[in-house]
Amino acid sequence: MSLNVFLGEIDAQSESMVASYHDMIEAMEGLMRAVNEFAFDRELQGKTYDSAKQYFAATYRPLAQGMICLCEELIRQNQAFPQKFRADVATTDVIEHEVRDQIRQLDTQIQDIEKLSNNVVGMALITPIFVDLKQKLQEKLEALYQFDAETATSFDRAMDLTANIVQGLAEIDSDKAFQAKTGTFHMMGLNMTWRSALQKQWTAREEAIAKLAKENETARLIKAAEDGPLPVTPEGNVAGFVTKDGKLDGKATYDNAKWQQAHVLAGMKNAIFLIDMITPIFDIYRWRTGLDPITKEPLSEFEQSTAAGFTV
């Protein structure tokens, strides 16, 4: 089977698919709003409504979240595919059998030139040109197969999301949740492993969005500082600000502040180590709170128990 990539068709298909994925995301966001409105509607009371609220929040909400994650992943892949192909393989269509035909033609031409070079002066100088052309075509073919191998696994995350979404839909479609005798919804008997998998993906998405927002805000503040007036500092006191060509270098100043923070933290840790040698005050803090006194990070049970031992 021949490997062929037609960039024009791929670009058109990608644009169409990305648009449909955006429409799906909007629909799923609407579904999440509807579920939330239903779940928090105080006028709808009773066992049936209460159980239905819990059921819809526990099933349809994570399914909608999973669909949003899936669509966003497919948007990324559809946008990345043509860009990566142009960067790694070629900026034009690549048809495998045509490339192989060109390589074979060059092989024949190289052989003919080598035969003529014995009788025609200067023909030997042409051979390297054809050899170089052949090598470039071979490299293009190798890049095509390498690209195909790499993209074969690029949709693994999308496939995992799809599998869990399908499982969730199957559980909902089984009608096992509604109990006709009691007129209520129950989660007992439902396989909900798909929900935890989708919620994990959603949490990772939310964390990535928060991280990006923080990075964008940092970049905005740095840019605003660079474009604004240079802070007034006492003569002879750098005060941590870094200038370049008479203007504040926001990025360098930010990096310098982070470096200073790391060294201050290291100094505090050294001070705590010395204090720890003569007083149990920090061990008492570790024991009672379960946190590191400087970083505020949670301690393991062993570390907390060890700290308790030093307070005796």
From TrEMBL:
Signal peptide: none annotated. InterPro entries: Bact_secretion_toxin, LXG_dom. Residues 1-215 form the LXG domain. Transmembrane segments: none annotated. In the N-terminal section; belongs to the LXG family. This is LXG domain-containing protein. It comes from Listeria booriae. The lineage of its organism: Bacteria, Bacillati, Bacillota, Bacilli, Bacillales.
